[in-house]
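Case study 2.
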Amino acid sequence: MWAAFYLEIVIGIPLREFGIVPRTLHGLVGIFVAPLLHGDILHLISNTIPLLFLGVVLFFFYNKIGGAVFFRAYFWTNALVWLFARPANHIGASGVVYSLAFFLIFFGIFRRDFLSLFISVVVIILYGSVFYGVLPTDPRVSWESHFAGALVGIGSAITFSNKKTVS
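Prediction:
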């Protein structure tokens, strides 16, 4: 994300054009690169910090399923945005952030073991505002990415909560 931001801002390569533009051939590339693209430094920082925290929690505590959960958060969230979002250029990693947050919150609820419930509570305390982010409040913000991420995170939590070995 930071390298893409550097290329765009410092060198002047217009990478933002490659965001997710729903239901267009050109926008398909955004499924793979949109989370790497950000509008400004504040947007980048506001995605970097939770992505690092939630990613570390995911891979540290659930290392056996971490890769699969992250792949779903990255790919399926963006695929849903491409399929269903309003026509706009959707960029940023917030869909991935929402997916990881919702996974960590709901995994504990579905799994019902002490560690997973503890992680759920910590994530709710730190990132409980994600529940509001799935609502369309600001036309400049891709609430569709947030909503798609929430769906993918909850779906992943349901899928993996029944697995015997997760860490």
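The helical segments are 2-11, 30-33, 41-61, 63-84, 94-111, 114-127, 130-133, 143-161.
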